[in-house]
């Protein structure tokens, strides 16, 4: 899970104005924002250095709350099934690693996920100095093995987990490769609205944005604060 994409160096507002020119018919029939969202202020940056916990914490939080520019997402943490993952993710949240970062990838066909947790917004960023850690709580390979509301780790292969994770907003089938560590209890409606608005990529030939089923969210999603308790 995870693709290499360009950094969020282009102002989203400018990109979307261009999108109206590039695809006027599509733009006229599709929304380009989610009502109630505010303007993001985050900037892509090099992932911070955070001390990595190497053993499972004795006391684990039960919930993670993500405050975004579009509203709140609350996750119930599967502490008994993914204690190592939750130990690592909690350490990052407490260190404010996720604060003021973008969710950099949205998929809207076949897979229905919003991917977050990379401060560089490139799809390749993870905590500086971390070498990756093992998977936990892997599902069987079957239809809809990552149902709507699932929160799972993104990775680049076995044992490469870091800080990137994805939020599933519609039932999705993937390989049995991604640690499931939480369940969304609030905010799934928001994610579905983001999915309806869709995603875009910048074409390398003309440097203009185009609709795609796998790219940056057209409605920018900024994680303003991530906390655990």
Automatic annotation (TrEMBL):
Pfam families: Pro_isomerase
GO molecular function list: peptidyl-prolyl cis-trans isomerase activity
Sequence ranges assigned to domain PPIase cyclophilin-type in this UniProt record: 71-228
InterPro entries (alphabetical): Cyclophilin-like_dom_sf, Cyclophilin-type_PPIase_dom, Cyclophilin_A-like
UniProt protein name: Unannotated protein
Biological source species: freshwater metagenome
């Amino acid at each position: 899970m995870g693709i290499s994409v360009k950094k969020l160096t282009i102002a989203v507002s400018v990109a979307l104005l261009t999108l109206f020119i590039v695809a006027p018919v599509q733009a006229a029939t599709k929304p380009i924002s989610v009502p109630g969202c505010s303007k993001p202020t985050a900037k892509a940056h090099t992932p911070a250095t955070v001390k990595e916990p190497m053993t499972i914490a004795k006391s684990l939080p039960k919930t993670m709350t993500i405050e975004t520019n579009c509203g709140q997402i609350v996750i119930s943490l599967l502490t008994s099934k993914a204690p190592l993952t939750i130990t690592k993710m909690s350490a990052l949240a407490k260190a404010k690693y996720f604060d003021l970062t973008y969710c950099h990838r949205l998929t809207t066909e076949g897979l229905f996920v919003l991917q977050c947790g990379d401060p560089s917004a490139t799809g390749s960023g993870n905590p500086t100095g971390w070498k990756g850690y093992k998977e936990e709580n892997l599902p069987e390979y079957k239809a809809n093995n990552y149902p709507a509301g699932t929160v799972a780790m993104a990775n680049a292969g076995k044992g490469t987990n870091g800080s990137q994770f994805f939020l599933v907003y519609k039932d999705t089938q993937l390989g049995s490769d991604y640690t499931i560590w939480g369940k969304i209890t609030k905010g799934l409606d928001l994610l579905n609205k983001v999915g309806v608005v869709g995603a875009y990529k910048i074409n390398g030939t003309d440097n203009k944005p185009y609709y795609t089923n796998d790219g940056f969210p057209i409605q920018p999603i900024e994680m303003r604060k991530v906390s655990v308790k």
